[in-house]
Amino acid sequence: DGYYQDVEGQTSCKICPAGFDCSSYTGVVACGLGMYSGEGELGCTNCATGSYANATGSGVCEVCPAGYRCPDVMATPVVCDEGYYSSPGSTHCTLCPNGTACVAGSVEPVACMSGTYAIAGSSSCTDCLMGSYCPFGSLIACDVGHFANTTGLSECYTCPSGHFSSVGSSDCTISPAGTYTPTHLGPQGAAIQCADGYYQDV
């Protein structure tokens, strides 16, 4: 097997060349798209999943490169779209996860820097929004008693004494007259009405 002879009256056979089918023993036929053969092999073999042969007469199948997908063994690799990535030998591209970014043709996700964030499938990271902080590429609302009055923060600021704030605040509110904010007990989300017999005029 793996030899042929296309001329009558010969004393020996020829070895089948790579990229061809010699199963008729009387001639050679180029391997079709998505198939290959090595030298001395009788017939052609289908390319394995995650590889391709996009030309006839291929001696080998090429492994799908990183940053591309190869769903069809007969076709040219397709570059991964923005927000997706792939490793070598992939039939599909993988969605870039939260906190990372993937430009077109990415081979792996790139983590967002502190103070920025990205949702799944993003091609770039975005500055953290006011009222939020972004320590690890995720957008998190500031907790009560905290605020973020600018973008791109990796942590929220604590409201000063006598002030309070709700979740996701970009600033703090001063306690109005007749109320107080016990910030000595920790950050506060609201002012408290003075108890009977007490007052606060500042």
What does this structure look like?
With 202 residues, the protein is mainly beta. The protein is 0% helix and 24% strand. It is built from no helices and 24 strands. It has strands at residues 3-4, 14-15, 20-21, 29-30, 35-36, 45-46, 51-52, 62-63, 68-69, 78-79, 84-85, 94-95, 100-101, 110-111, 116-117, 126-127, 132-133, 140-141, 146-147, 157-158, 163-164, 173-174, 179-180, 192-193. The radius of gyration is 33 Å and the shape is rod-shaped. The model has no long low-confidence stretch (mean pLDDT 90).
Say what oligomer this is. Answer: single chain
Average of per-residue pLDDT values: 90
Largest sheet: 2 strands, antiparallel
Q: Count the strands? A: 24
Strand content: 15-25%
**Number of helical segments with 4 or more residues:** 0
The secondary-structure element order is EEEEEEEEEEEEEEEEEEEEEEEE
N/C terminus separation: 100 Å
Strand order in the largest sheet: 1-2
Q: pLDDT under 50 segments (min length 5)?
A: none
Which structural class do the helices and strands define? mainly beta
**What's the overall geometry?**
rod-shaped
Q: What's the Cα radius of gyration? A: 33 Å
